[in-house]
Amino acid sequence: MTxxxxxxxxxxxxxxGYLGYRKTHGASDYLLAGRDIHPYVMALSxxxxxxxxxxxxxxxGAAGIFGMGILWLTFLNIFVGIFIAFxxxxxxxxxxxxxxxxxxxxxxxxxxxxxxxIQKFAGIIIFLFMPLYAGVVLIGAAKxxxxxxxxxxxxxxxxFAFIIAIYVIMGGLxxxxxxxxxxxxxxxxGMAVLIVYTYYTLGGITEAHSSLTAMSPPASFVAKGxxxxxxxxxxxxxxxxxxxxTIVMGVGIGVLAQPQLVxxxxxxxxxxxxxxxxxxxxxxILLMTGVAFVSGSLxxxxxxxxxNNIEFCQITGSIAETCPGSKxxxxxxxxxxxxxxxxxxxxxxxxxxxHKDVPHKITTDGSIAxxxxxxxxxxxxxxxxxxxxxxxxxxxxxxTLLAAxxxxxxxxxxxxxxxxxxxxxxxxxxxxxxSEERSVFISKLGIGLTILISVLLAYxxxxxxxxxxxxxxxxxxxxxxxxxxxxxxAYIGGLYFKKITRAAAVAGMVGGFAxxxxxxxxxxxxxxxxxxxxxxxxxxxxxxxKPWIIVDxxxxxxxxxxxxxxxxxxxxxxxxxxxxxxxxxxx
Amino acid sequence: MLGxxxxxxxxxxxxxxxxxxxxxxxxxxxxxSDGQEDNSEQRQWAEEEIKIEKSL
Lengths: 587, 56
Hints:
The complex is a heterodimer of chains A (about 575) and B (about 55). Chain A is mainly α and about 575 residues long. Chain A has 24 helices and four strands. Chain A has a two-stranded antiparallel sheet with strand order 1-2. With about 55 residues, chain B is mainly alpha-helical. In chain B, about 70% of the residues lie in helices and about 0% in strands. Chain B has helices at about 5-30, 40-55.
């Protein structure tokens, strides 16, 4: 049954991708879907691109730790990511994009500020860093396939990436948008069933919430500011900073400057389509992140009543840390399957420390979600589905996750391919031997290259990152924060402020990017201690103490970028009236 | 407060639903407005696109 549904699903996707391919003509169509897209397709495509396995598995799992305070992210997703993005950003982006004949986000910024450098700079940022986001989405999907079909992680990863590669390269954005809309519909149904079933099995809305409110968090959570799963963490505590600065603000605001989302505004032919898309988009996001976060939080109630004798070590922050002591065992044919649950990339004959990174102290009655999921944030939602839902739903949910991952990834690969093809290569080659066919060819080549890089990251990251799958939410937050710090002030400035100058936009982008990079490499403990550059140069894993080491890079980079964009505008040459008139025509 | 333990979480639970409702209301009220898609220049651009497509 599972195989049949998956094959059927892939056939529908292949057909839609093929239809997109048949309808694609010329570079304009390949990149922007010909600007003639139905609002339902546009909204669901935007939503399905926006929401990935990262949101459902990664952040849904985080909800199992942080509780329902994470719903502030859902609120921002709807209010900022849909309402403000479509009405205040989308409409202007669409018109300005048309007047400036822009086909990608970097091209839009570059033409708005008449700076070829911006296009190359933004193109390189997208090409270099979006693979991290795509990589973690791939990890989420491949991990789920691995669990469902009990196959090797590497096989799952390559199989999945292969399917995506084919339809993205063949279909261009039109193929991507139709498949996205179909996938959005699948996600819609899957998540709607999940929330109804969750509340139903836990005795109704108020009853379920009350049970969660009555639960006491473990002492290790309380020490870091956790006050319960239906209340906000203590102001200024570790939990508060991670929840508010990284998860809620970092991702909630960062969405406005996501290149693969902004390009969607340029695909509709009038503002009416955007108005209609707001209706569908608002409900869609509520059903996606709202349901994932509420279910992730409420999974604690389910596990507290249904799971006993789970091995548990010490929970700090969002994942289990290395347990004290060690126990080395040899991997054999008999135990490899069990050991793979907690140790990826092992093979027969290896010797491994089974206490390393794995919870192992016995708890008694009941459990909380993170413990039931073996200390891995990304396992909370899959475990909850597996243990609480009927089997038919597990299959439906798997399709939901496949859809979520595929739709996001396809748009990411598309954005990365055009970043290297159109935004970087084409700009360098300008004036030389250039043709439209060559531009499309280079974009496709770029897509192929970024798929390879993303797959490689998805293959390597779980091995390198000792804390395992928490990397999904982290990788997403890093990329969203980087985009906000680098692009957001220039993007808003370009849409609304006629006096922002070319030099100011460049200064804001470069300054915001540099600040983000500095913070990630030398200050924010989660990354700087893993990357190790700070250790290498300064002999310590991070340069400052608390609270800086837990303050998200975007919290610093965005104000720096805003300041530079405004300040430099005062001292540099204003854009010409003709150019401003052209940009703001009909707006 | 729907069984929730903190005003801020209750507030955001309600805000999520209200903001989605606001999206629906906005979409319904504006369902047919802003429909004038093209000025003459844009229409010409679209016609040229169709011509090119047909010629291909």
